[in-house]
Amino acid sequence: MKIQIINGPNLNLLGKREPEVYGNEPFETFFQKLKSTFPLAELHYFQSNVEGEIINQLHAVGFTFDGIILNAGAYTHTSVAIHDAIGSIKSPVIEVHISNVFAREEYRHKSLITSKCKGLITGLGLDGYALAIHYFSTLHKS
Ligand code: DQA
């Protein structure tokens, strides 16, 4: 089972960025834990602060991978292009947010990408990524 995790803008600063909102752990150390929790999954990690690079990565894996976990960061709330990219590929995409976007500023309540995603996990911290992998593994077994 091939799973691509894509993190968008500013998520390279996890661990340093607003720890009261996003926690203290850099994604790289969490990613090592994910790999040991899901030894049978082939996990790939990509992060970019650039909208077009996120779209290119969706295109690169979106016809062959079993699932994509996408935290598009602030592009979630603005990007018609990422909405269209998710709609253009075959692999199911789960939208993940570390914080509960609905408990925050009103401009974070609107996501332009959810309608093209299989589902949405928000507010469960980094565990949201593990829950999404768990979901893809149950799909893969059936
Ligand atoms: C985020 C929520 C977004 O509103 C914000 O712009 C982010 C991170 C989250 O994971 O909680 O960069 O996607």
Write up what this structure looks like.
The protein has 142 residues and is an alpha/beta fold. The chain has a single domain (2-141), classed as Rossmann fold. The chain is 35% helix and 18% strand. The protein has five helices and five strands. It has a five-stranded parallel sheet with strand order 2-1-3-4-5, sandwiched between helices. Bound molecules: 1,3,4-trihydroxy-5-OXO-cyclohexanecarboxylic acid. 1,3,4-trihydroxy-5-OXO-cyclohexanecarboxylic acid (DQA) binds at residues 10, 71, 73-74, 76, 97-99, 101, 108.
> pLDDT average, as an integer?
97
Provide the CATH top-level class.
Alpha Beta
Cα gyration radius (Å): 14 Å
Multimeric state: single chain
Which word captures the global form?
A: globular
Outline the biggest β-sheet. 5 strands, parallel
What ligands are attached or bound here?
1,3,4-trihydroxy-5-OXO-cyclohexanecarboxylic acid
Query: What series of H and E elements makes up the topology?
Result: EHHEHEHEEH
Query: What's the CATH superfamily, by name?
Result: Dehydroquinase, class II
Total domain units: 1
Write down how many β-strands occur, each being a DSSP E stretch of 2 or more residues. Answer: 5
Distance between the termini: 12 Å
Query: According to CATH, what is the topology?
Result: Rossmann fold
> Helical amount among residues, as a percent range?
25-40%
CATH architecture: 3-Layer(aba) Sandwich
- Proportion of residues in β-strands: 15-25%
